[in-house]
Input
Amino acid sequence: MDFSEQLMVSVDRVPQKRESGVIREDRPLKETIRYETAEAFLKDISYGGSLYERTHRQMVFRGLQSGTYELVPSVLRHKRVLNNMDGTEYVEDEDAPIKIADSEWVQREMEYLSLRNFFEICDENGLRLPDIEKIRKYLYSFKDMGSVVRMRDEWIPYDLLELAALAQHYGLETRLLDWTGSIDTAIYFAAHSEPSLPEEERQKEKSKYMVIWMLDTAIEHKSESLRLIRPPYHGNPNLAAQKGLFTYWKEPGFKISSNVISQEEVIELHKEPINRMPLDQRLEAEFGETKLDRTYLWEFLLPCEGRKTLYDYIVKKGVSAASLFPGYAGVALSMKEARSFQ
Output
């Protein structure tokens, strides 16, 4: 059975096939391939390998240092809500009718306020920004915060996407997930250093692996909620060097009867829980057992013992911190990472 035939294996059986150092677990939407060696993976993605053609067509990639890391946006990874005015964490009142850390309404308010503050500070310091009228119009007031009209919009609204992408790339927590159009860049982010895992994570089987995710961007045209965004590279040398782009899951707006709502309705709206489900599980939940025309998501699990092998591979191809983070800081980081592998 060749690679294309393996992708059509029935969902009723999830066989494992061992061949040339690879264990395959096949599903209709998502395929997990667990490699026994890094060399087997590099052979598959190299010219003539079983994955070579696929890694060069409409695919995006995400590299993670540990197989325990999930496809969850940074702002939703922890069950907490930060007061983005001063960075402090809200403390829950056990007797309160609304649990803030679980409230989708509160979460969206805090995410919007975070983006609004990012916009304001960047603007004050003369940094290039997308011109967003709805933020600039209310820049010196809180009139737009928590407005019923805003909460009717889907999240993230279209006019905030470019700003969110810019903020995400420079470290602000958002609902966007970072991807790259280059598998070599994804390998770098998976292999450049060892992760710092808490004890409970180190006990998991997947902690023995790094992971490279590969997503077929054509899934955007089949999904009702998954969206991709590639912000302008001009003026953002890091994003350009990394061939960066983002995905996000479009959340529907709140169903609100009028612009004036009762206290009881406010409480009910605040009770809607946050969905922290990873992207792969969201897609599987959306499509259920629907048989698609092909697989759209791959999870490549690579043994941590092969970290140096992967790092040496991309360095020989000219990919390192120096190329992905243009500037003096990137050069210094690449030197430190090279020493760590000696």
